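Record pair follows.
FIRST:
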Amino acid sequence: LIRMKINKYGFTLIELLIYISIFAIAAGLLSGILVIFTRIQGQEAASSEVTQQLSFIQTTIQRLVREAVNIQNQAGPAYASSTLILRMASSSLDPTVISSDSNAVYLKQGTGPTISLTSDRVKISQFQAVKYENPGGHAIVQVDIGLTYNSPRVYQQITRNLKTAIGRVTAATFDDNLLPNQDSQFSIGIAP
């Protein structure tokens, strides 16, 4: 009979190689999962940032167009511009200018300072305003905005585009009461 000597105080070389191999495989898998998780988390953070800034620009432009007395841009797609000029009722806010370059979207109201509506976390890939006018109707501004997350990592350069139309509607006001005639009919616009 062959007797095997059992080592009670340590591991054999084969046992150590097996343990190291199992540990290396597990560490490789876990580090791969960590890299993928970090990449997805970075993409989601970039996407969220771009979406929030796009939403902020949209709501700001909508509010300002609806508060405007007039849209000064020339009408038609031939006059598409990276600047939107709004005339406001308040002299301290007139004119309100929304403009863009590749770095940011800017807002300047009256003689006030020019402020940035976007942070340095995004780049402007597109900003274009086109005014459309219906004779006798209200003016509409079509705004095309494209934002890209500002990152050196390609997988984080998320781009979101928004194409929206905003109508400037003013309500009709009358300076006199409308009263029916004796036959319950209304007469509007008759000169005295």
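SECOND:
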Amino acid sequence: SSAILKNQGVNILLNLFAGSLVNAARGIAVQVHAAVLSFCNSFTTALNPQITKKFAADDREYAIKLSFLGARLSFYLMTLISLPLLIETKQILILWLNYFPDYTIIFVRLILLDVLIESLSLTMITLMLATGRIRNYQLLVGGFQLLNFPLSFLFLHNGYGPEYAFFVSIFLSICCLFLRVYMLRQMIDFPASKFITNV
């Protein structure tokens, strides 16, 4: 429900406050997001069973090591894909669509930054799920993601531009990343400082 409200709720808000053309620009950005994230997910899909298997076999150290490696490699892969898109957004959109609405370029760039931050969390989520203690995780992280809707509403209602909905999402993604690190540290002695310095 938090993911649905984060995505579809912001669509409704942008439609209300900025109009259908801005909403169309967000739709294009979301398509780019889905394509880039699916590539990264296919990489972590190969790594996730190993993390779960090692954690279930009580080899926590190796499971943590795999999650570090997965986070780092996911970020590198995402950067490899995203960097050309970030630098040449306008040219790629012209080749792809020929015409695109205003705000599309900034939306694509901001959503790519958001997906880069999300890529650091993918293997940590697997590690968290492997513990089997996910209630508090779902409540805290899901609750934090739910803030995307009311915070975006506040910015848009007070006259800020539609790109602020993306700034809110990026800010909350960073908060959720650190929240995951903190929760894993509490649950399985996850080396938070090592993650921050190494990953």
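COMMENT: DSSP finds ten helices and no strands in the chain.
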